[in-house]
Design brief:
The protein is an alpha/beta fold. The protein is 48% helix and 14% strand. The chain has eleven helices and eight strands. An eight-stranded mixed beta sheet has the order 4-3-5-2-6-1-7-8. α2 runs parallel beside α3. This is Dynamin N-terminal domain-containing protein. Pfam families: Dynamin_N. It comes from Dreissena polymorpha.
């Protein structure tokens, strides 16, 4: 029970030594103070720390978390409603086996051999709740470095000699859960984040034919997304480096909640048009296919990376001009 009601700083100023001592004792704050003024100062500091208003950045983060949670909730409700439509349609088809003409028509209209199989396939797709954020770009554009920034920790190797050679998918887990990762479905248990990072580096940068991997799935806590575990981050090798890897990247695009493409600004402006055209052509093909989901181009973000390198080069050129002077003809 609190012996003295403290509503604001003026109440602290009015305290006598017994009231101050009892207030601290009630809050279970241990101290060795004897001066009334020192006790009052401790009370002021305690109140300010417990009643501190969140910073602008914290408020923005909390607001973003709430927005993400609402979007995911709405998405889940929509999937359930669409799923119920599929259930009704499947029940109708199965209970009316004599509707052979409708059956054939629907199969032809969907561009498939068997409409029931196609509907079940789409229904299964609806149950997938992952919201992939796909991060792609040219080799050495800084994809892994950018993703490490989002993760809040240097999880992925970023050295120029350690360019990622396989798909890496980051799955958020709750704070306090033990991290782990799998490689092509095989579990790789670890005892700490440091051990995970060290082992993951060897896998992601493997180059020998005996160590050819396709995908690593990493499970660790990501403060940025909180408990929104449906959000996954997909780190990809350079688009266009190999047809197999490019196809793997394109598999994620129809279901991508966002597509972030990093441009290496230090490399002739950063835009390699042939690779961008390759991506846009593939997106167009996916949009015209019979897939349940299609890529939303409004969810694309182009990030110009390595501007600091350009600034440094510009500075060096200015220094050389000053050193040697400019010759005008």
């Amino acid at each position: 029970m609190e012996y003295f009601c403290v509503r604001d700083e003026s109440d602290v100023d009015k305290m006598d030594i017994d009231e101050a001592f009892n207030w601290l004792d009630d809050k279970q704050i241990k101290h060795k103070l004897h001066s009334l003024e020192e006790m009052k100062q401790l009370i002021r500091v305690t109140r300010r720390s417990t009643e501190r208003k969140p910073s602008e950045g914290e408020e923005l983060s909390q607001s973003s978390m709430a927005d993400i949670k609402e979007v995911l909730s709405n998405d889940n409700d929509l999937r359930k409603r669409v799923g119920s439509v599929y259930d009704e349609l499947l029940d109708t088809i199965k209970t009316q086996p004599n509707w052979i003409y409708l059956y054939k028509y629907l199969s032809t209209w969907c561009g498939c051999d068997e409409i029931v199989s196609k509907l079940n396939e789409h229904k299964d797709e609806l149950q997938r709740k992952d919201c992939p954020i796909v991060i792609a770009g040219e080799t050495s554009a800084g994809k892994s470095c950018f993703l490490n920034l989002l993760l809040g920790e240097d999880v992925l190797p970023v050295s120029l000699l350690c360019a990622t050679s396989i798909i890496c998918v980051i799955h958020p887990i709750s704070d306090g859960e033990a991290p782990y990762f799998t490689v092509d479905g095989q579990l790789k248990p670890v005892n700490s984040n440091d051990e995970l990072i060290e082992k993951l580096k060897l896998i992601l940068t493997a180059r020998t034919e005996a160590e050819t991997f396709k995908q690593a799935d990493v499970y660790l806590h990501v403060p940025l997304v909180g408990e929104n575990k449906h959000i996954v981050f997909v780190d990809t090798p350079g688009v266009g480096e190999s047809e197999q890897m490019s196809d793997k990247v394109f598999e994620y695009l129809p279901n991508a909640a966002a597509f972030i493409y990093l441009l290496n600004s230090a490399n002739a402006g950063g835009v390699q048009e042939d690779k961008l055209i390759q991506i846009f052509k593939k997106v167009q093909d996916l949009d015209q296919s019979s897939c349940l989901f299609s890529f939303d181009p409004t969810c694309t973000m182009l990030v110009c990376n390595k501007w600091d390198v350009i600034e440094e080069r510009s500075k060096e050129r200015r220094e050389r001009k000053r050193e040697f002077g400019m010759i005008h003809y």
